[in-house]
Amino acid sequence: MAAYTTIDNPELYMQVKLYTGDGNSTQAITLDGDEDMQPDLVWIKNRTDAHYHNLNDSVRGVGAAEVLRTNSNAAASGTSGHVSVIGSDGFTVAAGDSDAEEVNTSSDTYVAWCWKETADAGFDIVSFTGNETVRTVAHSLSAVPHFMLMKSTAGTAGWGVYHHKTSSTPAEDYLYLDTTAAYGDSVNFWNDTAPTTSVFSLGASGISNKTGAMIGFLWSGKQGFSKFGSYEGNSSSDGTFVYLGFRPAWVVYKPIDATDNWEMLDSKRDIGNPNDTLVYANLSNAESDPSSTNDRVDFLSNGLKFRDGGGASNGSGTYIYMAFAEAPFVNSEGVPCNAR
């Protein structure tokens, strides 16, 4: 009989951390998991006020000059607040010379989404030099990537998105993480060639292969831990159910054929259902007040149940999502998890 999951403890590979800024020049943040996790990607968002997303990773190295922002097409540069150290069970944030509000303003609240890079959990960070010619780039997932983000770190260019469920021919499709744009079709992004267990393909002139330094974040779904899929909205408060095979810790979704935001939810900012405290990958906005938004989605022991009939989450049309587990629905010993 096939195993329900190979990852009984998702906190070894992905964690959501809430913290409050103290206004000091640095602040050490320790993750909450029962076991240590040294993150390789740290994605921080100020919840209190409107400030840019703030991403650092271990492959390029941390620091103000390496900060990327999903709501901006800017190159990695600047003197802003940033992650200054990645530790064995967390990270340190530093104020920098400007925009400390992104990571550590006194009394502001923050959320950090953290991933460990390992093929076991289906996550790989790939640094390469773009050359605007048709090519392939090697990766280390030992599995076919289901979701890819590509960003020029050397120049101004948007975030190219590949998702294996945009259509029956996803290598022909692209989205931008930093905009609301619907998906498009262009050979310039993925060269109309599906990624394999060892390489991904790039076109000659798309933003995913700009001349100069590039970074790629690649994920492949792992049963009981992560899933990258699609669903059809039904425009009803008795919304679509999406089976994941786990109780989710974090989810982001977007309609692929409409100009709506990339909505982001997690199990720490909303500890009960419905989950409706939103931030947006493509916007700097502060966290939404749940009283000002419709109920979005219930986090269940085995998936998602949408509760809003609106276009951003459950209108008429096709949506893509990426989701990570707080706990597998059934662990490798056959023990089911509890609902929230």
Radius of gyration: 19 Å
Which parts are unreliable, with pLDDT below 50 for 5 consecutive residues or more?
A: none
Distance between the termini: 28 Å
**Judging from the principal axes of the Cα atoms, what is the shape?**
globular
- Please work out how many helical segments DSSP would assign: 1
Q: Which bin fits the share of residues in helices?
A: under 10%
Q: How many separate structural domains?
A: 3
Widest sheet: strand ordering: 8-15-10-11-12-13
Average pLDDT works out at: 95
Structural class: mainly beta
Say how many strands there are: 23
Major beta-sheet overview: 6 strands, antiparallel
Q: Write down the secondary-structure element order.
A: EEEEEEEEEEEEEHEEEEEEEEEE
Share of β-strand residues: 35-45%
Structure characterization notes:
With 340 residues, the protein is an all-beta fold. It has 3 domains: 10-115, no CATH class; 123-219, no CATH class; 226-328, no CATH class. 1% of the residues lie in helices and 37% in strands. The chain has 1 helix and 23 strands. The protein has one helix at residues 187-190, and strands at 14-20, 26-30, 41-46, 54-57, 82-87, 90-94, 109-115, 123-130, 135-138, 147-152, 160-163, 173-176, 184-185, 199-202, 212-219, 226-233, 241-243, 246-255, 263-266, 279-280, 297-299, 303-306, 317-328. The strands form 6 sheets. The protein has a 6-stranded antiparallel β-sheet with strand order 8-15-10-11-12-13. Strands 16-23-18-19-20 form a 5-stranded antiparallel β-sheet, with no helix packed on it. The protein has a 4-stranded antiparallel β-sheet with strand order 1-7-3-4, with no helix packed on it. A hairpin with a 7-residue loop joins β12 (173-176) and β13. The mean pLDDT is 95.
